[in-house]
Amino acid sequence: MITTNDLKKGMTIEYEGKLYKVLFFQHVKPGKGQAFVKTKLKNLDSGATTDKTFRAGEKIEQAVLESKRMQYLYKDHHYIFMDTETYEQVPLSEASLEDKKDFLKENMEVSIVFYKGKPIEVELPIFIEAKISKTQPGLKGDTVGSSNKPAKIETGADVQVPLFINEGDIVKIDTRTGQYMERVTK
Q1: 24 and 7 within one domain
Q2: What is the CATH number of the domain that holds 157?
Q3: What's the pTM value of the predicted model, to 2 decimals?
Q4: What is the pLDDT of residues 10-44, one digit of tens each?
Q5: Between the chain's N and C termini, which has fewer beta carbons within 10 Å?
Q6: Domain holding 58: CATH number?
Q7: Which three-class secondary structure string do you get for 73-140?
Q8: How many domains does the chain have?
Q9: Residues 6 or more apart from 140 whose CB is under 8 A from it?
Q10: Residue 140: what are its φ and ψ, rounded to 5°?
Q11: What count of other Cβ atoms lies within 10 Å of the Cβ of residue 69?
Q12: How far is Cα 37 from Cα 34, in angstroms, rounded to an integer?
C-alpha cells in the first residue's frame, strides 16, 4: 500500500478493483481545509481516462507489474509474441496493442508488461529502422528543404518524410510519436 502523496506520473495503481495508470497528478493545499490530490487516471482494461480526487494521505494499492522480453513472431487472428527464455507464446488482440501495431516488425524484441499473469501493455523500442514501401518519387537537389511528403513504411504505418526520401530507402522512426528521424545508410 502507498499513500496518495507517493503518486507519480506513469505509476500503476489498483483502485476499486481496476488497474489504472497515473497520467497526471497535482497535490493541492488550499488555504482553508484539508489537502487533496487531483489525478487523471487511465483504465488499462478499457483505455478510458477519468479524473479522480483523493484525500491527501489516503492509502491505495500499488500494482506490482512484471516485465518480460518477448519477440514478435507473426499475426493471424491475434498478434503472437514468444517469451525468449521459455519459448511460451502469448497472443494479443489488435485492440490491446492500439497504435503500437503500426510499428511491429517480425522478430522484433519488445517488452511486455504483465499484471497477475495477464499482459496489459507492450513497450516498443524507442526507435526502429524500416524500409519505405511506398512514396512519391524524390525531388533531385531538394536535400535541405523542410517540406515533407507522406510515405508508407514496411510495417504499414504512414509517416511524413522529407522530399528526398525514395521507395526502398531505410529510415529511422520514433515509435512514440511516429516521426521520421533520419535516413539510414547501409
Answers
A1: yes
A2: 2.40.50.140
A3: 0.72
A4: 888 888 888 888 899 888 888 888 888 899 998 88
A5: C
A6: 2.30.30.30
A7: EEECCCEEEEECCCCCEEEECHHHHHHHHHHCCCCCEEEEEEECCEEEEEECCCEEEEEEEEECCCCC
A8: 3
A9: none
A10: -65, 135
A11: 11
A12: 10
